[in-house]
Specification:
416 residues; 8-stranded mixed beta sheet; globular; binds flavin-adenine dinucleotide
């Protein structure tokens, strides 16, 4: 079924009896060409692009819970391509371009809203670093502008410009950045993949891998064995636990990241704002809630809830740049398990086990990557060659001495 304004009008006049489920609930077949483990944003977008761009229709997505139960339904919805390094910038710009045409492409309203992202500058060295990043962005075709305090004041009069510790000296502004309704992205990709013949199997945990003569030939699941020519793992925060079943140790640690939503306020924040002297980011949802977050909790865990010290730290960051946030009441908060890699950058690669592929290590920046991650993973699965923009995301990059350390923090997953 194609969604359109005419369809809404017609259904409104005929009692809304013509809507059909957005995807089927099939039982798994005994065998597929490709089985994708994990029905988050990245697994579903991989299935969608496999079917749409690469003609691979004998595909299943096997999901432990329900679609949207993982980080795709838990993130703070920010999209941007303001990266510096050669290994990252073209990939994230490719992703932003895919976001720009996504709703028309998969015929679903994902509320892609390019309201801009403002990264605040609080010191001279930080300005130098952001100018360098802006130049790198512009060289690869992205948009970036350096703004002074007067221009920011016009856009965001409520910020604390003269804070003695963190005065706002400027900002790097990416007008094409913004937010997207996170769970609608999962639903849109699921619907598009299902319509092209992909089987989406929910409530079906993968409990092990079928191995024959060193080759991965399928998965063991809660609904029985499913054979496959290729198995593509894409389970975000569960990466280490799932790949352990294939005997692999990954350069990844799992950490919890929390998100917060305030009560609904009148429109106040024009786009996304990030604090440059600490870690705090905020935007406003269409319902009016301020959606914000900060650092991960900093200890290894698989729990989907965090602790009070980080709540305090995030609120301090908010108060330092926009004291008016102290008047808003907190409505909801939750956590998600992040697959933090050693250099803060992801992996999209074949493993050393024939037939087994891995996508993960997205840290807390994988939502914005959802379209490009799916496209590049689909490219790898269909052609056995990495996509040009994802060619640096290899599992052996630490052994080769080629980490992609965007923040320059070193091998410290809890700091990326
Ligand atoms: C609080 C928070 C805020 C964030 N904010 C942003 C942001 O503003 N911008 C941004 O770019 N990124 C953000 N992120 C990161 C982003 O959400 C993730 O990097 C991204 O969603 C991960 O990919 P995914 O969507 O495929 O993951 P998920 O949705 O977690 O998908 C993985 C799926 O695998 C399934 N699974 C696990 N084990 C198994 C198994 N054994 N068998 C079958 N299925 C299994 C899980 O149930 C899950 O559904 C944030 C994350 C959190 C938690």
């Amino acid at each position: 079924m194609r969604y359109s304004a005419w369809k809404i009008f017609k259904e409104g006049l005929t009692g809304n009896k013509g809507w059909t489920p957005a995807w089927r609930e099939p039982e798994p077949k005994a065998e597929y060409d490709i089985v994708i483990v994990g029905g988050g944003g990245h697994g579903l977008s991989t299935a969608y692009y496999l079917a749409k761009e690469f003609g691979e229709k004998n595909v299943a997505v096997v999901e432990k819970g329900w679609l949207g139960s993982g980080n795709i339904g838990r993130n703070t919805t920010i999209i941007r391509s303001n990266y510096l390094l050669e290994g990252n910038q073209p990939f994230y710009e490719f992703s932003l371009k895919l976001w720009e045409g996504l709703e028309q492409d998969f015929n679903y309203n994902a509320m892609v809203s390019q309201r801009g992202i403002l990264n605040l500058i609080h010191s001279d060295p930080q300005r130098d670093a952001f100018v360098r990043r802006g130049n790198a962005m512009r060289l690869s075709g992205a948009d970036a502008e350096i703004l002074g305090p007067a221009e920011i004041r016009k856009m965001c009069p409520f910020l604390d410009y003269d804070n003695a510790r963190f005065p706002i000296q400027g900002a790097i502004w990416q007008p094409r950045g913004g937010t997207v309704r996170h769970d609608a992205v999962a639903w849109g990709y699921a619907r598009g993949a299902d319509a092209r013949g992909v089987d989406i199997i929910q409530n079906c945990e993968v409990t092990g891998f079928l191995m024959e003569n060193g080759t991965c030939t399928g998965v063991e699941t809660a609904k029985g064995t499913i054979r496959a020519k290729k198995v593509a793992v894409c389970v975000a925060g569960s990466s280490s636990r799932v790949m352990e079943k294939a005997g692999m140790r990954l350069p990844i640690e799992s950490h919890v990241l929390q998100a917060f939503v305030s009560e609904g306020l009148k429109p106040v924040i024009p786009g996304v704002i990030t604090f440059g002297a600490g870690h705090f980011y905020v935007s406003q949802s269409d319902k009016g809630g301020l959606v914000f977050g900060g650092d991960i909790d900093g200890y290894n865990t698989y729990a989907q809830r965090g602790n009070l010290p980080v709540v305090e730290d995030v609120c301090e960051g908010g108060m330092a740049i926009m004291p008016m946030i102290g008047r808003a009441r907190l409505l909801r908060m939750w956590g998600g398990v992040m697959d933090m890699s050693m250099d803060g950058s992801p992996f999209i690669d074949k493993t050393h086990i024939e037939g087994l592929y891995f996508n993960g290590g997205w840290c807390y920046g994988g939502f914005k990557a959802t379209p490009a991650s799916g496209y590049c993973y689909a490219h790898l699965l269909a052609t056995d060659r990495p996509h040009d923009t994802a060619q640096h995301y290899r599992l052996d990059r630490f052994r080769r001495g080629a980490p992609i350390d965007e923040k320059g923090q070193g091998a410290q997953p809890n700091l990326h």
